[in-house]
Design goal:
The chain is α/β, with parallel strands linked by helices. It contains eleven helices and ten strands. Strands 3-4-2-1-5-9-10-8 form an eight-stranded mixed sheet, with helices on both faces. Strands 6-7 form a two-stranded antiparallel sheet.
């Protein structure tokens, strides 16, 4: 666990279910705790990049949309409102702890083109050099199927590669990877270390995520495959209490550690 303690540049990803209440509105107490912990790490010399979901849920709540949007144009419009709300809250929370944030919105085609990929990389590096915390999301306002990452677990993995991160940390609404569904099997065991993502590990993935999110264990394992194959370890921990990150940095056995190759 000294890997995460000694890491300099770390990408954190937080999902919609962690950021919001069941109503779809923001859990402001949890966001404030997350901002405080990440600000503390930054004050200690870490370079922090945050990949955040939540724009769609925030937009739906603000516009009082009581159904899950089905059309692309509706999703794009709701995201335009929600992304603004998301950044407003992050700006307020992080500024309370002396931090400045910058927004980066990406689509997959940006990373598929060498010129735009380099430009994105330069922006990340300059924001970090200027002591800003980049906050990243998929650019859902213009995104469509051919240029979508599809979920922010996958996005966070590509951001980790793009930025040359030392580690990727996924904050979710689960404690880590279990050998079976803990909601259905009380005897399910938490797997603390994954040395290789094989068919057995993939079989533990189960179904998709919550109603408010687009991910699930399938996308988290996909993210682990991407980063671990490129020398970047990944940690999957429960983000319901962001202060658990302190335990992780102190080497305590929390969540699941995916060992890089």
């Amino acid at each position: 666990m000294n890997i995460i303690k000694n890491a300099t540049r770390i990408v954190f990803k937080v999902g919609t279910s962690t950021l919001t209440h069941d109503t779809g509105k923001f859990n402001l107490n949890r966001i404030d705790k997350l901002a405080r912990v990440l600000s503390d790490f930054k004050n200690a010399g870490k370079e922090i990049i945050l990949v955040s979901s939540g724009a769609m849920s925030a937009g739906s709540a603000k516009l009082r949309v009581d159904h899950r949007p089905s059309t692309i144009v509706e999703k794009q419009a709701i995201s335009a409102v929600g992304q603004n709300e998301l950044m407003r809250i992050y700006d307020h929370s992080f500024s309370m702890y002396g931090q400045t944030v910058g927004q980066i919105l990406l689509t997959k085609d940006v990373l598929d083109n060498e010129t735009s990929k380099q430009n994105a990389q330069n922006t990340f590096n300059m924001l970090i050099k200027m002591q800003c915390i980049p906050i990243v999301n998929e650019n859902d306002t213009i995104s469509f199927e051919e240029i979508k990452f599809g979920d922010n677990d996958t996005l966070s993995a590509y951001v980790a590669l793009l930025c040359g991160a030392d580690a990727l940390v996924l904050l979710s609404d689960i404690d880590g990877l279990y050998d079976s569904d803990p909601h259905k099997n009380p005897a399910a065991k938490l797997i603390h270390t994954v040395t290789k993502i094989d068919e057995t590990i993939l079989s533990y993935a189960g179904d998709a995520g919550s109603e408010r999110g687009t991910g699930g264990l399938v996308t988290k394992l996909k993210a682990a495959e991407i980063v671990c194959a490129n020398g970047i370890p990944m940690f999957l921990i429960n983000g319901q209490n962001p202060e658990i990150l302190y335990d992780m940095f102190e080497g305590m056995n929390v969540g699941t550690y995916f060992m890089s190759r």
